[in-house]
């Protein structure tokens, strides 16, 4: 079983590709916590790196997972460049549950958070050609039951980004808000939000307080009505994995 958390489809697409090669099934992490997975012999965790660490949505769900202690557990991190402390953090959390991570790796993908800094994630699609080979090597390693954790060390950048004072200053840069003048209440932002953090009230979309900064709402909004720092994301800068559509994320 491969469990994933995904905002714009990178983790979902990689989970599907690994599942196809390994003969596994895929399941969103927020649904996996409702399942008894204690009989699974192999468990994969696929999730992005946010601010040099595992997304809060992942670390909040992990303690609720019912996982066998003797399963072959692997982690794959789709990330723009660095895996940060994401693997290190999750390994520690699973170790506290008596579960060892056998294998970990990362795959570089277009960074959807680039829009928060005025850049276009679609300028990074060249990474797809490069990640194909690494994905094949990762799948072969997992199929062979290799025990090796890549990119699993602690790093200073991840530690600094976890400081509450730093997060209070930086997270607003990647916390979306709806421009009500542009919103047409189509409901797409609500449907793709993995946190169920968006509701439609009186014909307008409203963001709650449980945002994961995955930016799914920003990238999938057809009206470009979900903004960062009160700035519109141009349609040309909206990104999602080319093999993942709105229906896949809902």
Description:
The protein is of the alpha/beta class and 250 residues long. It has two domains: 2-161, 3-Layer(aba) Sandwich (Rossmann fold), CATH 3.40.50; 170-249, Alpha-Beta Plaits (2-Layer Sandwich), CATH 3.30.70.20. It is built from ten helices and ten strands. The protein has helices at residues 10-22, 29-32, 56-61, 86-96, 127-143, 156-161, 164-170, 188-192, 216-220, 246-249, and strands at 2-4, 26-28, 42-46, 72-79, 101-108, 148-149, 177-178, 198-201, 204-207, 226-227. Strands 2-1-3-4-5-6 form a six-stranded parallel sheet, sandwiched between helices. Strand 1 (2-4), helix 1 and strand 2 form a beta-alpha-beta unit. Helix 1 packs across helix 5. It is globular, with a radius of gyration of 18 Å. 41% of the residues are buried.
